[in-house]
Each structure stands twice: as C-alpha cells, then as structure tokens.
Write a structure and sequence with these properties.
300 residues, mainly alpha, Serine Threonine Protein Phosphatase 5, Tetratricopeptide repeat, two-stranded antiparallel ribbon, 16 helices, 2 strands, 3% strand, elongated
Length: 300
C-alpha cells in the first residue's frame, strides 16, 4: 500500500477562550422571571456567618468554554484521510469535485482516497483529470506514475515521472520514485543517477521518508533487495554520508549480495575502505558451523 502525507488544516485544531462570569450571565440569562426566581431562592436559604478568612476568599475562576470550529468540506475530507477513513474521504472529494470541476486539487485528493482503497483504475482516472485541469500539477502527474508502478508497468511509470519532473524539478519525491521505477526496469545506472539527484535536492530525504502533501510516495519494496541496498550505499558514499553508506552496505550483506567485493575496486568507496565498519561490512559472512543432530532429542 502506498503511503501518503496529508496536511492537517489549522482549523481542525480545537480553539479555547475564556468568558467572564458577567458576560456569561448576559448571554445565557435574561428576563424578570429569572431574577424573581433567584430572589425567592435567596430568601429561603438561611444566612450563615462565614469565618473572616473564608468570607474574603476570591470567587472561583472564570469558566473555560471549548469551541469546535466549523470545518469546511475540504478540511473534513482531509481529516478523514488522516484517520485513514478513505471511503468517507472519497465521498467528500467526489461531491466537491462535482461541484467545482475546475479544481484540480479536489480531483487529485479523490484519486488518492480511491488509490488507498485499491481502486487503481478509478484513481488513475481522477489523477489524469487533475492534470488535464492543471497541466502544471506535478503532484497529480507523479501519482499517475505510482499507479503504473504498482501495476508493474515500469516503462509507463518512468515516462509519467519524467513528465512530472518537467513540471517541477525541485521535488525529491519525483526523482526517488523515478529511481525505483528505473531499478525495477533494470536500468541501474539511471536509477543511481535519480537517487543521487533526490539527495542533491534534499540530503535527508531518505532518512525522513517524507512526501509532499498531495503526492504519493510509492511502495519502496523491490525484488533484488541486495543489489538495491548496494546501490543506495554507493549513492550515500558519493554524497559523503558515511553513516548511511555503512547501513546500506550491511543491509546488502544481510541480503546475501554476492558482488560486495566490487566496492573495494570502486573509486566511489576508495575514501572509506580503511574504515573498520566498512571493512567489516565488506567481509564475506563466514560459513555457519555444521549442525549435529542430538540423538537423545531425536528419540523424544
């Protein structure tokens, strides 16, 4: 399932303010009947002498009233998305898009809510509708690519991401998604170049795992994980991030990647080969000791 990030509108937060006792009385009590009832009640209550220290006790604090602001339909749809109630979100954004057919954002959000329910054909329809309304809407064009990627149509996904990049060249999520599509299409050098560009725009992009509001970050699972982790290690080595390089070298090793030794001859890793952690990561796993059967246990 693809992950999404939806911005929570400020109006969703609860607001609170204080109302003084006098104004509360003015707002919620009126008429002589109220005053008469109060005087009767006071007359029926015997007078009690209070100790001086209690008689001077200040009145209780003014009440605090919590007000829940009225949300717009779009904010309500966003709230449903945050709660992962995608069916309700889809109903809201369908109604909004019907009422405002020139609003590309509504179509894109409707597509995302359907995408999260696995309705890929309908999601694609509304992503493409959003791009038709706004030909520069890179988020929606990116989302078109995520549908094709999920369907394993990597060539179409690549073309969709390239088109999105032509609209906006400053979004790392576009280069990241493109890199994954290149990798699955076995275009490894192109994949490496796209990962490198994503890190150039935002060096912390892969650590944060963030995506833009309205832009889907596609599923990051890949088939050849050992090779994939080695490529990420190389990308981080090129960017000078030794810590992340070591992490992904170890992941590649754990996946049984057989070409780890190539790093020793790769100039990208040359500056780090004397690092003990890098040396440990590049050392092949020792063969597991033979397992001997326990005859006593076998008889049980």
């Amino acid at each position: 399932m693809s992950r999404i990030s939806v911005a929570l509108p400020a109006a969703v937060a609860l607001l609170s303010f204080t109302v003084t006792s006098s104004s509360t009385a003015q707002n919620f009590t009126s008429g002589s009947s109220v005053a008469s009832a109060e005087s009767v009640a006071a007359a029926s209550i015997p007078r009690v002498s209070l100790p001086q220290n209690l008689a001077q006790t200040p009145a209780t604090a003014d009440p605090v009233i919590v007000v829940r602001p009225q949300l717009t339909d779009e904010e309500m749809g966003d709230l449903y998305m945050i709660r992962k109630d995608y069916r309700e979100a889809a109903l809201v954004f369908k109604r909004l898009s019907d009422a405002a057919p020139q609003n590309a954002v509504y179509f894109n959000k409707l597509g995302i809510s359907l995408h999260q329910q696995g309705a890929l054909t309908m999601a694609l329809k509304y992503y493409e509708r959003a791009v038709k309304v706004d030909p520069r809407y890179a988020d929606a064009q990116n989302n078109v690519g995520t549908v094709w990627y999920q369907r394993k149509r990597y060539g179409k996904a690549i073309r969709a991401y390239q088109k999105a990049i032509n609209m906006r060249k400053d979004m790392p999520v576009l280069y990241s998604n493109l890199a994954y599509a290149y990798f699955e299409d076995k275009k490894y050098e192109d994949s490496l170049a796209s990962f490198r560009q994503a890190l150039t725009i935002d060096p912390h992009f892969f650590e944060q795992g963030n995506s833009r509001s309205g832009s889907v970050l596609q599923d990051r699972s890949v088939d050849d994980r050992g090779r994939f982790y080695f490529m990420l290690a190389k990308t981080f080595a090129e960017s000078g991030n030794l810590e992340r390089c070591i992490i992904y070298l170890r992941k590649a090793k754990d996946e049984g990647y057989r070409e780890l030794a190539a790093a020793r001859k790769d100039p990208v890793f040359a500056a780090y080969l004397n690092n003990p952690d890098v040396q440990e990561a590049l050392t092949p796993k020792s063969a597991e000791p033979p397992r001997f059967k326990n005859a006593a246990l076998d008889q049980q």
